[in-house]
Amino acid sequence: MKKKVAVISLGCPKNWVDTENIVGLLKSTGDVVFVGDLKEADIIIINTCGFIQPAKEESIDEILTAIEEKKEDPEKRVIVAGCLYQRYKEELKKELPEVDAFLGIDEIERSVEKILNRKFAAAKPYLLREVLTPKHLAYLKISEGCSNACAYCAIPLIRGPLRSRPIEELVEEAKILADKGVKELYVIAQDTTAYLHDRNEREGFVKLLKKLEKVEGIRWIRLMYTYPSHITDSLIDLIADSEKIVKYIDVPLQHINDKVLASMGRKYTRRYAEELIEKLRKRIPGIAIRTTFIVGFPTEGEKEFEELHSFIKDVEFDWAGFFKYSREEGTAAYRLGDLPEELKESRLNLLEETQFWIYEKKHRELVGKGFELIVDGKSEEMPGFVEARSYRNAYEIDGIIYLKGHFRPGEIVKAVVTDLASNVDLIAEPIGDRDKASERRGKRGTPEDRGRVNGERAV
């Protein structure tokens, strides 16, 4: 009888890919069936995150929930995988004796052995990967670990130094994803722009992207997690000239004050960041820039915070995420102490409010403009609409576009933005329908009700 397996995946897209590899290996045995209810499951797998305190707490909560299910049915097996275990191996083994097996991030190839207690060999586990995102998009993790040594970051403690995957392997995986119907490829790593730096190749990322551009079936390539001082002129030129690499870049700045940047261990200055943004916008017209900032780093005083706030108001990023500094043991910044939680919270709220109004301003400028949209699926919030995205929107990170009509997931539709659904989300209708509507208006000589819908979506 097949084992029923429930899988909980926490954390970032890099961790999600690990989950997909685990699921693919288990599925390839033919001995399991996957279920969504923990009570039904014979085996519960939690792929944990251990990056910052809130993520660690969420992981522990999920593990304890699984253990409670095991108490109800002692035959259940609980498996803990991922970053939390990688970071606190001995502590978790000691504190959680109810867990049946632990799986480190470097043990994914042994998933079947650890989880099903049987031997299973796979020369190339990534070829068996089960895509768990919508079938038209997938992540391609190009490297493991990081060697940037940012003072606040626990990733090197968890996943080790940078280790780039071979280009041939990545192209092979991309081709398989394309054969499965993937149209939009998200290139991810802790620092994608450092690809092949561990092999002393400074333009390795550009070399890889040129290979990925040639993969048939892939329509959009989206670049995530690029490190500011690793963005080269050749990469900018490639994005500008490419027909597949979308005009979008995720470039976490983390702060803008020089003193704070230096204490964070970031290898650039405010002047460099400003020149980079200017260069990106000048050489790639229409580019959407996403960034992230850490609020409340120990060396951030009122002056430094005001500089950051003013910078955000002036630059008007297309997308920005804000995170409160989390003091993590083992990092270089740990010795710097911490700021009061209420101070960090108030600063976070102010930046989010400022960015909220920037979104409204920028999105009002998009009304009347046409875009190619990729459809993600039917909208539950707005009947008669599907949820879609333009090149400006990354899946599950940025806002969405409600597209009027009925279209299949993965379909690419030409559309025009007609209104705002909220500060972050837009409403659009297919250009073909809009043209037909214009014809009808001309014949009748009366305005046509386009069914404008105003929605509300939390930011």
TrEMBL record:
HAMAP family reported in the protein's UniProt record: MTTase_RimO (MF_01865)
GO-annotated cellular components: cytosol; ribosome
Protein name (database record): Ribosomal protein uS12 methylthiotransferase RimO
Reaction(s) this enzyme catalyzes, per UniProt: L-aspartate(89)-[ribosomal protein uS12]-hydrogen + (sulfur carrier)-SH + AH2 + 2 S-adenosyl-L-methionine = 3-methylsulfanyl-L-aspartate(89)-[ribosomal protein uS12]-hydrogen + (sulfur carrier)-H + 5'-deoxyadenosine + L-methionine + A + S-adenosyl-L-homocysteine + 2 H(+)
InterPro entries linked: Elp3/MiaA/NifB-like_rSAM, Methylthiotransferase, Methylthiotransferase_CS, Methylthiotransferase_N, Methylthiotransferase_N_sf, NA-bd_OB-fold, Ribosomal_uS12_MeSTrfase_RimO, rSAM
Cross-referenced CDD domains: Radical_SAM (cd01335)
Organism per entry: Phorcysia thermohydrogeniphila
SMART domains from the UniProt entry: Elp3
